């Protein structure tokens, strides 16, 4: 119930959007209405706590997907929530979200899985039991193309995890970084970008993992 603001994320936000404003939340689990509504209420509450008042709030999930153009046209900010990366990615493709975002001129905020699926190429790091050993599980999938950075959030919270008997960092993610550059982000850090200007910067603490070698 707090916004991570150690690197002045809130100040960057208010530079680019005027409050009160209209927010659209894009679900990660499009059929889990209760989970999405709970998350939406948390967003409303915490933004209000920081003086970021909203003029309206909509949710884009399975039930509202037919109104996607209307919902995006109304939004000043779109927030892609966290959750299971492949599930959200599949939903994005089903509703052709990338196409509908082409004329969106507001602020896109990707949170957790939402930040990962914002990339051109998404590394869907295994997280559930069975995903590491499943030969059909796709670890690299197409994303929205809003950033070229392959983002892995919450680094400190999963770096010691074990999935299917494999160390997630050393046994899975290190080998998967061959030929790629991963941005391992600590909570509070973020990518600040402008798609029109084709510029972006990483703000806060993060690590770069490339060809099995990690540097801070």
Explain what this protein looks like in three dimensions:
The protein has 216 residues and is of the alpha/beta class. It has a single domain (9-215), classed as Rossmann fold (3-Layer(aba) Sandwich). The chain is 29% helix and 26% strand. It contains eight helices and 14 strands. It has helices spanning 9-16, 33-49, 68-74, 85-94, 97-100, 113-116, 155-158, 168-176; strands at residues 21-26, 54-60, 77-80, 107-110, 121-123, 140-142, 150-152, 162-163, 166-167, 181-185, 190-194, 199-203, 206-210, 213-215. The strands form five sheets. A four-stranded parallel beta sheet has the order 2-1-3-4, with helices on both faces. Strands 7-10-13-14 form a four-stranded mixed beta sheet, with no helix packed on it. Helix 2 (33-49) links the parallel strand 1 (21-26) and strand 2 (54-60). The longest helix has 17 residues, at 33-49.
Rg of Cα set: 17 Å
The overall number of domains is 1
Average pLDDT figure: 96
CATH topology: Rossmann fold
Which series of helices and strands comes N to C? HEHEHEHHEHEEEHEEHEEEEE
Please tally the β strands and state the result.
14
Task: Write a brief caption for the model.
The chain has 216 residues and is an alpha/beta fold. It has helices at residues 9-16, 33-49, 68-74, 85-94, 97-100, 113-116, 155-158, 168-176; strands at 21-26, 54-60, 77-80, 107-110, 121-123, 140-142, 150-152, 162-163, 166-167, 181-185, 190-194, 199-203, 206-210, 213-215.
